């Protein structure tokens, strides 16, 4: 059997748009760390990952690389602006729940935006056409093998029948947006039957409880009436 081949990549990008700098370490296209340039530190993609070994690359070395990238970009832009067309990718978005969706149970929607180039898109959420920002989180850009980027956005939610969620991707200067929708799935006939049976059982239980209370009340009232008749003296 052929040995399994893995790929570790460290990608640095710089651009005039925000974010002006980005540095990511990936393993088999999965982001492990991203570099926080304002804080001069590596940040793990997942909290359970171990901290970045500081002896591998110091923040000073990475900042020198970033400065070189920006200077090279400025020089190349001055040479080729107006001569070469600007390269832009059309984002492709997909929305799906993090866990299998169940009505009434908390979940998280994931918006995966692929074919991002340059990495300067804005991701927003809408719930029934109303913008939502509370609880929304985004990942940093992750490079892909086709020289583009992918980015994820997360929205905590609780599925309710009939709700419609939208992930809206925009880029400054573009006249259009890319929108991906997720509609809360309708309950299956089995789920509807189960809900109806549970409701019927609950209603029957309440009815039987009320009927039992009424019978006890009537029995006590009847017993009191009998006691009065037995104890009354003859006229």
From TrEMBL:
Keywords: Glycoprotein, Membrane, Transmembrane, Transmembrane helix. Its main location: membrane. Residues 85-184 form the Ig-like domain. GO terms for cellular component: MHC class II protein complex. InterPro entries: Ig-like_dom, Ig-like_dom_sf, Ig-like_fold, Ig_C1-set, MHC/Immunoglobulin, MHC_I/II-like_Ag-recog, MHC_II_a/b_N. It is a single-pass type I membrane protein. It is found in: Membrane. The chain crosses the membrane at residues 199-219. One of its GO terms (biological process) is immune response. Signal peptide: none annotated. It comes from the Eukaryota. This is DMA protein. It comes from Syrrhaptes paradoxus.
């Amino acid at each position: 059997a052929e040995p399994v081949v893995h790929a570790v990549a460290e990608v640095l990008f710089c651009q005039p748009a925000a974010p002006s700098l980005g540095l990511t370490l990936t393993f088999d296209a999965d982001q492990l760390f991203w570099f926080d340039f304002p804080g001069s530190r590596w940040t793990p993609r997942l909290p359970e990952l171990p901290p970045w070994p500081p002896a591998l690359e110091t923040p000073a070395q990475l900042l020198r690389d970033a400065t070189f990238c920006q200077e090279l970009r400025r020089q190349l832009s001055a040479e080729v602006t107006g001569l070469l067309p600007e390269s832009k990718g059309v984002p492709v978005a997909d929305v799906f729940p993090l866990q299998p969706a169940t009505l009434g149970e908390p979940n998280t929607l994931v918006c995966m935006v692929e074919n991002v180039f340059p990495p300067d898109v804005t991701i927003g959420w809408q719930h029934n056409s109303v913008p939502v920002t509370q609880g929304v989180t985004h990942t940093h850009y992750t490079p892909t093998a086709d020289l583009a980027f992918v980015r994820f956005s997360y929205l905590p939610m609780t599925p309710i029948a009939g709700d419609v969620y939208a992930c809206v991707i925009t880029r400054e200067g573009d006249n259009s947006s890319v929108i991906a929708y997720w509609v809360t799935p309708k309950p299956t006939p089995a789920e509807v039957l189960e809900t109806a049976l549970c409701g019927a059982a609950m209603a029957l239980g309440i009815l039987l409880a009320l009927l039992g209370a009424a019978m006890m009340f009537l029995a006590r009232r009847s017993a009191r009436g009998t006691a009065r008749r037995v104890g009354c003296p003859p006229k």
